[in-house]
Amino acid sequence: MQSLAAEGALLARDSAAGKTTAIYTRVRSEDLSKAASTSASSLQTAKTQPGLESKLRRVASLASKVSADLKRLGHASKAEQSSLARELGTAATELGK
Amino acid sequence: MSLSLKNVLAVALGILSAIGGFVDIGDLVFNTQAGAVFGYQLLWVVVIGVVGIIVYSEMCGRVAAVAKRPVFDLVRERMGFGPGLATLIASEVVNLMTCAAEVGGVAICLQLLSGLPYRLLIVLGVVALAVASWVLPFEWIERVFGYLGLSLLVFVVAAIKLHPDWGRVSHGFVPGHHVGGSLLVYLYFVVGLLGAAMTPYEVYFYSSGAVEDGWGLKDLGLNKVTSMIGYGLGGLLSFALMIVAGALFLPQSIDPQFLGTPALAAEHAFGKVGLLLALVGILFAVGGAAIETSFSGAYNTAQFFGWRWGKKERPAAASRFTLSWLVIFALAALVIMTGYDPVKLTEYSVIFSVVALPLTYLPILLIANDRTYMGSKVNGRLANVLGVLYFVVIIAIALAAIPLMLITNGGQG
Fold it and tell me: Could you give the residue ranges of the DSSP H alpha helices within B245-318?
């Protein structure tokens, strides 16, 4: 999930900078979003030890947000892409902790 | 144009197509994943793999030039029906898996370029590959896919533009203690990188191609130069893929699980032009490899059963051969239409090809040493030392491949 968020952040940054084609951004963000959505669903139904439940909920919530951000990325304007790049970058850092 | 200049041009063209045709989906997947996990620490494995494919391709080309028969033809004659059949089955399974992965790779590249639906592009891609294979003469298949595959050189320039730590890069060429990741995952990538560099279909295709091109004793020099320089420089592309992954993906914790991810590195370095060059390069590299795997499968079957074979034959004259490569394309398309992830399939095909490596390389080593077929052109001391050394390595990685894949969950740790 951290990798998906980090790749999405890089894609969003480069897309906002006009370095990618619209088709590449759309297709790649859809791929990443699908993979993130699958992981997010697994995390939402996952069980863990009582002490780790709050952490799991936080990760599951972040995963859902990453999935939604990646879905938006494919059709976002340049300004939105910059903002998504920041959000996905922050999520990648959070997920790495 | 003088004859010597023509020869130089022929050699240069052969080398160029070998460089462009070196990289396939296995190299793309394993080199970028290895770079993203271990940085530059596994560059030494690429060197070993490239030298290995040079050693055995040179033997295959020499056997074809001297005996005028491709390797698989001699495998059955030299080793008998049973071991020959085992080799045929193993190579066909690996060929089909690899061809399916390459066809999936073609569809992914077309999708990243056009935005059309993936499954439609599988059908269009496989039809285009079959038409190209049917219509184009053998040397033009090599040239078109080899030359357009040279667009992958954008990764070499990107590797420089991304300013890697060259000190660390140079350390990567020396095997040593690894940093980061587990030892088992490190070993899994060692096995995968060697398997990707020494894929069996490459030597079968090279050998049959040499017979198709009508190589004789006068072409032994061309064989040496093409295999050494072509594969050697082709290895540059593998280095470049690992270096860009180590410089760009590793620091950002990006694990390239998609075929489209490596193109991001070329795009990051050079914008849209870099992206398009990378996608076109990958498209023709995996497209060329799809043709090579389907032909390799058809060559092996036809040569084993003694059918008439060859791209230079009219399709109707070599009907069973023609039908074989068409069936392999069709089966590959069906496999990938099921929705199976081409990257995952690539990982499996490379690991299974490693298991089948001894069945491919032992007969080559034996035949290249057999004076009945080779006369005075049997292996020299260097070829034998390297051949035996590599065979020991091949046995070791063949035994370790599947356990490592299971223990490390396909390199995921």
Answer: 261-305
List pLDDT tens digits, range B62-89: 998 998 888 778 878 877 888 888 888 9
Query: First-to-last CA distance in chain B?
Result: 58
- For B254, residues 6+ apart whose C-beta sits below 8 A from its C-beta are A3, A6, A7, A10, B36, B248, B261
The CA distance from B229 to B43, in Å, is 18
Query: Contact, B390 vs B361, CB < 8 A?
Result: yes
**Position B217: which residue type?**
L
CB contact under 8 A, B267 and A35: no
Residues of B in contact with A6 (CB under 8 A): 252-254
pTM of the predicted protein model: 0.91
Could you list the beta-strand ranges (E) of chain A. none
CB-nearest partner of A31 from B255, B258, B276: B258
Question: What SS3 state is found at B315?
Answer: coil
Asked if residue B203 lies in contact with residue B53, where contact means CB atoms within 8 angstroms, the answer is yes
**CA-angle at A66, arms to A61 and A70, nearest 5°:** 150
Chain B residues in contact with A14 by the CB 8 A cut-off are 264, 267-268
Please classify residue B227 by burial: count the beta carbons closer than 10 Å to its beta carbon, then call 0-12 exposed, 13-18 middle and 19+ buried.
buried
- The tokens of B355 are what? 């298991």
DSSP letter string over B38-74? HTTTTHHHHHHHHHHHHHHHHHHHHHHHHHSS-HHHH
Mean pLDDT value of segment B393-404: 94
**pLDDT tens digits along B259-296:** 999 999 999 999 999 999 999 999 999 999 999 899 99
Task: Give residue A48's identity as a one-letter amino acid code.
Answer: T
Q: Write out the two tokens for B319.
A: 């009907």
- Give the number of other Cβ atoms within 10 Å of residue B176's Cβ: 9
The C-alpha of B115 sits at a distance from chain A's nearest C-alpha, in angstroms, of: 6
CB nearest A19 (choices: B255, B261, B267): B267
Min distance A1 CA to chain B CA atoms (Å): 10
